[in-house]
Design brief:
Layout (H helix, E strand, L loop, with lengths): L1 E4 L18 E6 L9 E5 L7 E3 L16 H4 E8 L5 E2 L1 H4 L9 E5 L17 E2 L1 H10 L3 E4 L12 H7 L4 E4 L9 E9 L8 E9 L1
Parallel strand pairs: 5-7, 6-8, 7-9, 9-10
Antiparallel strand pairs: 1-12, 2-3, 4-10, 4-12, 5-11, 11-12
Helix pairs in contact: 3-4
Length: 207
Amino acid sequence: MKIYDITVALSEETPVYPGDPRVRIDPVTRLARGDAANVSRITMTTHSCTHLDPPRHYCDNGISVDRIPLSILIGQALVVEIPGIKAITTDDLCRLPIRGEERLLFKTANSQLWSDSAFCSDYSCLTPDGALFLVDSGVKLVGIDYLSVERFDGDGGVHRILLENGVVILEGLNLGGVVAGSYELVCLPLKIREGDGAPARAVLISR
């Protein structure tokens, strides 16, 4: 058995989506100052680094992150590699063996972007027709290796297509050390009550 940690570490150096505050980690108490223990304060959004988008992200009445069934977040997942493609369309997806897969993770050139603390707006993403194809294919969770599944100048359409059809979105993955294939996914977002999203720890297990 091999375990792959596909989570991007929360850090003040990791990129954030434009308009979001950067991650901040400030000391509250420190042993070096004579305090009883080391304690830090973290300031971030619910969509920092590796995180889960539930339907509540784009709909006030949608299911919140604390109500997403764990059965969706844990189970067999297919990692597909799509190199050299910026906009993932139906034509790209129909060539892949994704029918019957409930959890689909896209490995793209995005995984190389995490070494830069600056946000890159020219990342690989899913198109609206690609999102519809995934819905029709029965996918319940889709993941991608950057901060958004949708293009930078998108209008939220890709998110809405997926989320309104019960497909949760796992963004901010790092799949750089993972080869395409089937794995067991374990994704545990913070259980934020009525949350519109939550940072998550995600791993892939190869048996």
